[in-house]
Specification:
With about 450 residues, this protein is an all-alpha fold. About 65% of the residues lie in helices and about 5% in strands. It is built from 16 helices and five strands.
């Protein structure tokens, strides 16, 4: 039996991480346009070395990677591993676990990916900026839920679920784009090693190998092989996530029975302070061991990664990548077609695509709006879909990493589009969401 990781607790970490993400992004923007700008830019270029003899673990094609590369290629692999775990859980027991539940957010997400790309394409057609087509595709789960959390219990659960579900589908689209279109070269030797390791991990899953360290160590090796093969290293995180067992080692019925047996070793008066005997200490250890076995490796890892991903990796990524130098050589803010293509793609493309495709699905009676969802409050959610911070910045780095001018314009577009989408989404929701909904879950775990 696979127990669903509590939706409310997952949202809680996304929300708080989103707030921290906003703060670190603003801090990076301030520092990048202050007297410390040069030191800020130079800091991320320091090389990272983990050397064993003459072998450096953190190398790409034999060259050491910078601190920026370590964040974007190594730490973000952990982020994408967490995304992969979340996607797998949603497919197995979450909002993507059945055709009926998944249809509305999947089609809405498709619209939210198609229209931004179309707008971006027409604004950058025939220019060097065309390489960044995928930048306005993704919705940032943490950032968007952070804005939604400002309304507390006024938000129907159906809206939270819809936003989270189509953002997860967006992540799938982003992962596929990175895997298919951001591969510089292919080294068949390392690809074969990667395929062999993947088969081994899948066999471990099929053979009911529940040790988390097997998949963690396999993931580290897979990351290195992907790094050298030419496929972007972060994809290793998603690939390995899908090999992690989703079912627990111990059946829930057996677990409950063992807990009852262990509890029987304690006296009835639980309020009395007492020194435990050896039998009772052993019972507590059995409870701990049984509890660990009742949680699947997938759910354990997802819960374990929530804090470091949302409170450290994503804010650090934002701090390193959101530092856009606003003033160009002439002292003017550098804004080009690329900036408007990204910003308009996020603001209008995401809104039109999500809303239009949702409307078509409902009008065709393929699905219906959830309880508490209306066409007016859905407007606000569609606007929040234009908050494309983390993955958009990530793809911008992949697209224009060697062109500082275009990269800055792309980042400016991401920040501008995200800011406008967040503000407009907040205004619309503040006008459409009424009083507190009785019995509605809060964002606290």
């Amino acid at each position: 039996m696979l127990l669903n990781f509590p939706f409310r607790r997952t949202v809680y970490f996304h929300v708080n991480g989103g707030m921290l993400l906003i703060f670190t992004a603003l801090l990076a923007l301030v520092i990048a346009n202050s007297p410390w700008s040069e030191a800020y830019q130079a800091f991320w270029q320091h090389e990272i070395v983990l050397q064993i003899g003459s072998f450096n673990v953190f190398n790409h094609g034999g060259h050491p990677i910078s601190l920026m590369g370590f964040i974007n290629d190594a730490l973000m692999t952990i982020f994408f591993f967490s995304v992969g775990l979340e996607i797998k859980r949603e497919i197995l027991v979450g909002e993507l676990s059945s055709f009926r539940k998944a249809l509305l957010p999947i089609i809405a997400a498709c619209g939210g990916m198609i229209f931004p790309v179309v707008i971006y394409y027409f604004l950058t057609k025939g220019t060097n900026a065309e390489a960044g087509l995928a930048i306005p595709m993704a919705t940032d789960i943490a950032f968007s839920l952070g804005v939604l959390s400002l309304f507390g219990k006024r938000v129907p659960l159906s809206l939270k679920i819809f936003l989270t579900a189509f953002a997860v589908v967006d992540d799938i689209g982003g992962v596929l784009v990175i895997a298919l279109f951001y591969t510089s070269h292919l080294d068949t030797t390392f690809l074969l090693y990667s395929a062999a390791l993947l088969i081994m991990l899948l066999m471990c899953n099929m053979r009911n190998v529940y040790s988390r360290w097997v998949y963690i160590f396999g993931g580290i090796v897979m990351w290195y092989l992907f790094m050298q093969s030419g496929i972007h290293a972060t994809i290793a995180g998603v690939v390995v996530a899908f090999t992690v067992p989703a079912k627990p080692r111990q059946q829930i019925g057996v677990y409950v029975q063992r807990i009852r047996e262990c509890i029987d070793t304690f006296p009835d008066d639980g309020r009395k302070k007492m020194i435990l005997n050896h039998e009772q200490i052993s019972a507590l250890q059995n409870i701990k061991s049984s509890s660990e076995h009742a949680v699947s490796p997938l759910q354990f890892m997802e819960g374990m990664l929530n804090r470091p991903v949302n409170y450290f990796i994503m804010p650090l990524f934002a701090f390193a990548n959101a530092g856009v130098v606003l003033a160009g050589e002439g002292g003017n803010i550098e804004i080009g077609n690329l900036t408007w293509a990204v910003a308009l793609g996020l603001l209008f493309g995401k809104f039109i695509g999500i809303y239009l495709f949702t409307w078509l699905v409902v009008k065709l009676r393929l699905a219906c709006l959830g309880d508490g969802m209306t066409w007016t409050n859905l407007t606000g959610i569609c606007l929040l879909g234009g908050i494309g911070f983390t993955v958009s910045l990530f793809i911008a780095n992949l697209s224009f990493g060697n062109d500082v001018v275009l990269l800055n314009q792309a980042k400016m577009g991401v920040l501008l589009g995200t800011l406008l989408a967040g503000i407009l989404g907040y205004i619309v929701l503040s006008l459409t969401l009424k009083g507190e909904i009785p019995g509605e879950a809060s964002y606290e775990p």
